[in-house]
Specification:
alpha+beta; 4 helices
Protein backbone atom coordinates (compact mmCIF):
# COMPACT_ATOMS: atom_id res chain seq x y z
CA UNK A 1 0.00 0.00 0.00
CA UNK A 2 1.24 3.50 -0.83
CA UNK A 3 2.92 5.22 2.13
CA UNK A 4 1.43 8.60 1.15
CA UNK A 5 -2.04 7.08 1.37
CA UNK A 6 -1.26 5.67 4.82
CA UNK A 7 -0.04 9.08 6.04
CA UNK A 8 -3.16 10.75 4.63
CA UNK A 9 -5.33 8.16 6.37
CA UNK A 10 -3.56 8.57 9.72
CA UNK A 11 -3.91 12.36 9.40
CA UNK A 12 -7.67 11.88 9.72
CA UNK A 13 -7.21 10.53 13.25
CA UNK A 14 -7.59 12.88 16.20
CA UNK A 15 -4.92 13.30 18.86
CA UNK A 16 -5.87 11.40 22.02
CA UNK A 17 -4.70 14.31 24.18
CA UNK A 18 -6.19 17.43 22.59
CA UNK A 19 -8.55 16.12 19.91
CA UNK A 20 -6.92 17.90 16.95
CA UNK A 21 -6.19 16.02 13.73
CA UNK A 22 -2.61 15.04 13.01
CA UNK A 23 -0.89 16.62 10.01
CA UNK A 24 0.46 14.40 7.24
CA UNK A 25 3.95 15.83 7.57
CA UNK A 26 3.94 14.85 11.27
CA UNK A 27 3.29 11.17 10.53
CA UNK A 28 6.37 8.95 10.28
CA UNK A 29 6.13 5.34 9.18
CA UNK A 30 8.32 3.26 11.49
CA UNK A 31 7.69 -0.17 10.02
CA UNK A 32 5.03 -2.30 8.44
CA UNK A 33 4.49 -5.97 7.77
CA UNK A 34 1.64 -6.79 5.40
CA UNK A 35 -1.43 -5.09 6.92
CA UNK A 36 0.14 -4.06 10.26
CA UNK A 37 1.65 -0.56 10.37
CA UNK A 38 3.59 1.19 13.15
CA UNK A 39 3.74 4.96 12.94
CA UNK A 40 5.10 7.80 15.03
CA UNK A 41 2.76 10.78 15.13
CA UNK A 42 3.36 14.24 16.51
CA UNK A 43 0.55 16.63 17.39
CA UNK A 44 1.56 20.14 16.42
CA UNK A 45 -1.21 21.55 18.63
CA UNK A 46 -0.31 20.02 22.02
CA UNK A 47 3.24 18.86 21.15
CA UNK A 48 2.57 15.23 22.18
CA UNK A 49 4.31 12.34 20.39
CA UNK A 50 2.54 9.00 20.11
CA UNK A 51 3.04 5.58 18.58
CA UNK A 52 0.16 4.31 16.46
CA UNK A 53 -0.27 0.64 15.59
CA UNK A 54 -2.84 0.12 12.88
CA UNK A 55 -4.18 -2.76 10.83
CA UNK A 56 -4.98 -1.37 7.41
CA UNK A 57 -6.42 -3.71 4.83
CA UNK A 58 -7.26 -2.94 1.25
CA UNK A 59 -10.57 -4.36 0.13
CA UNK A 60 -10.18 -6.50 -2.95
CA UNK A 61 -13.61 -6.30 -4.57
CA UNK A 62 -16.08 -3.82 -3.21
CA UNK A 63 -19.67 -4.24 -4.23
CA UNK A 64 -21.73 -1.10 -4.65
CA UNK A 65 -24.25 -0.71 -1.86
CA UNK A 66 -27.53 0.95 -2.73
CA UNK A 67 -31.25 0.66 -2.26
CA UNK A 68 -32.14 0.57 -5.95
CA UNK A 69 -34.27 -2.19 -7.40
CA UNK A 70 -32.96 -4.22 -10.32
CA UNK A 71 -35.20 -2.24 -12.68
CA UNK A 72 -33.82 1.05 -11.34
CA UNK A 73 -30.24 -0.14 -11.76
CA UNK A 74 -31.00 -1.08 -15.39
CA UNK A 75 -32.67 2.27 -15.96
CA UNK A 76 -29.79 4.35 -14.60
CA UNK A 77 -26.71 2.37 -15.64
CA UNK A 78 -26.44 4.02 -19.07
CA UNK A 79 -26.91 7.60 -17.87
CA UNK A 80 -23.83 9.82 -17.94
CA UNK A 81 -22.06 10.32 -14.62
CA UNK A 82 -22.24 13.66 -12.84
CA UNK A 83 -19.45 15.89 -14.13
CA UNK A 84 -17.84 19.15 -13.07
CA UNK A 85 -20.29 21.28 -15.06
CA UNK A 86 -23.20 19.54 -13.34
CA UNK A 87 -21.64 20.42 -9.99
CA UNK A 88 -21.18 24.06 -10.98
CA UNK A 89 -24.80 24.23 -12.18
CA UNK A 90 -26.00 22.83 -8.85
CA UNK A 91 -23.81 25.29 -6.94
CA UNK A 92 -25.31 28.18 -8.90
CA UNK A 93 -28.82 26.86 -8.31
CA UNK A 94 -28.27 26.46 -4.57
CA UNK A 95 -26.88 29.98 -4.25
CA UNK A 96 -30.20 31.42 -5.40
CA UNK A 97 -32.53 28.74 -3.96
CA UNK A 98 -34.80 30.12 -1.25
CA UNK A 99 -35.66 26.77 0.33
CA UNK A 100 -39.20 26.57 -1.07
CA UNK A 101 -39.39 22.90 -2.03
CA UNK A 102 -43.19 23.02 -2.40
CA UNK A 103 -42.89 25.72 -5.04
CA UNK A 104 -39.99 23.96 -6.71
CA UNK A 105 -41.85 20.67 -7.11
CA UNK A 106 -45.38 21.99 -7.69
CA UNK A 107 -47.12 21.25 -10.98
CA UNK A 108 -47.89 24.92 -11.59
CA UNK A 109 -46.73 26.44 -14.84
CA UNK A 110 -44.30 29.31 -14.30
Amino acid sequence: MDERLIKRLIATIKCGTCGQNYQEDHVEIVEHDDDVWFLNVFCSCCQVKSLVAAVIKREKDLEAVNDLTGAEVSRFQHIDAVNGNDMLDMRDFLRSFDGDFSGLFSNKES
